[in-house]
Each structure stands twice: as C-alpha cells, then as structure tokens.
Amino acid sequence: MQWLNYHHLQYFYTIAQEGSIAKAAAKLNIGQPTLSTQLKQLEESLGRPLFERSKQRLHLTEAGKIAFEYADQVFRIGSEMIEALEDRLQNNRIHVQIGALDSVPKHIIKEVILKAYEAGNCMVSVLEGAGDKLLRELSAHEVDLLLSNYAPSVDFQTVYAKSVAKIDVVVCASEKYKHLKKNFPRSLEGQPFVFPTIHSKLRRDIDHYFSVNGIKVDCVAETQDTSLQTLLGTEGVGLIPIADVVAKDLVKEKKLVVLGKLNGVYEEIWLMAASRKIENPIVAKLMKEFSLK
C-alpha cells in the first residue's frame, strides 16, 4: 500500500494557494530548496507532475487540480476533527453555534435552544445577522445550525434544510389604530405600514395578499429586523404584519393591538445545517426531531 506523506501534502497545498514556492516558503517558514525537494518527492510518489511554470507563477496541472481538491477536503476534515474534539472534551459539553436571521421570532430561537439542551449536555452560542453572511458561515462550518425565514438557494449545495414552523401572520398596531378592527381587512386601505424588506418571502406573500384583495396601503418603512419593526409599530409609525406568536406577547404587554389575521399568509421558518464528515450529535438530533408544526 502506498502511504501519503501528510507534510508533503501540506506543502503542496500551500504552494498551490500562494502560487509560488517563494511565497509558500515564507508562509511555512522553511527554505525554498527544502520546499522544492519536498514537492519533488510528492510528485515522484504520485508518478506525475502537479505544477507547470508560466510567467514566474506555478499553475496546477490536471493532476494537480485533482490533488488540490482532495487536499482541501483532507484539511477541512482535519480542522473539523480538532474542533469536534475540543468542543466535546471541554467540560464534557458539546458546543452548538446557532445562527439566526434578525427576522426570525425570538420565541422560535428560544425553543431551538431549549430543545438543544434536551438533546444532550451542550453549550449554546447564538449569532444574529444577515442571511447571506450566515449561510456562508454555515457552509464553512463556522455555524452549526441556522434559523431562517426562507429556504437556502441552490448556490449552497452542501446545506440541507427542513421547514420547522408555519405561523399565522396578523396585522398589529398601536392603540390609536384600534378602530381599524372594524371591517378588516378593507379598513387597511391607505393605511401606513412598516413592512419586512422586499427580499423576504413574507413580504412577497403580503404584497400578493393586498394585490389579490385589491387593497392599496402606504409603505412608510421597511426593515428585516423584527425588533425594530415592532418598536416602530408601538410608536405608531405604522401598522405591522408579524407572526402570531410575536403578537401574543406584545398584546399581553399592552404594547400593541391585533387588528386581524391575513388569511393564507404565513411566516415559514427553516432550520438548516451543512453536510459534515464528523456530525455534531446535538445538531443531528435537532435536524431530525425539531418541529413546531
């Protein structure tokens, strides 16, 4: 059986990333002649050249491209292994990093965290932010789980998702708009609204609802942050369409009143994870079992 020298592979991988032996030698803090020798030994062991030189820069051959692709996987898995061991050996707790879009109701994030604790001895970190950034971090294994109000695009092929909640959407407002309960939803004609941003599926569904029902409303603000949307609603800036579970707490606190439900409009929440060679057991369990439907 032919054995692969891990150090030789690392040297090759760094040369390919840097584009030259000189830059790779500086990054690895070893001499250029030593690095050239190590590369030659790897090429001899594989029986084919991995680079061709062009205009003072090294370019991967076809064999080199294949080797680089596998080397990339080897080092990714190696990083995964170290991360997994560190997470699971520290206080015997598994670290679970959960990303959540600003637009996901805090009630649902809380439910995921509680379910994670039920699934095993773990420590949870929660990061909130924009969808594309969190999806990239999920793909790069910097985040273990992601809560979103839309499914991942085909650009993220290593990400898999499941729909975990489908929540009724209601229109809420400050006390001064309570008269609009009468003759809802026709009463919404011409009223000011604070909407989710246009990129969200919920916004498109809301626009479709008003279009189908022939209701014209006045968009005075839009935001992807539900907390900011709620604040603007309580200040009377405009009416806000939000998930029913969020509205219940605000009504209980007497910050808003519910004017009515948008029939057929739902806030759908997705739970996502990325394919990994070494699975986080808490993540695997949540992806299999968690649902609020």
TrEMBL record:
Top-rank lineage group of the source organism: Bacteria
The HTH lysR-type domain covers which part of the protein?
Answer: 4-61
User: Transmembrane region positions?
Assistant: none
Which of UniProt's keywords are assigned here? Activator, DNA-binding, Transcription, Transcription regulation
Give the UniProt family note: Belongs to the LysR transcriptional regulatory family.
Supply the name of the protein.
LysR family transcriptional regulator
Source organism of this protein record: Bdellovibrio svalbardensis
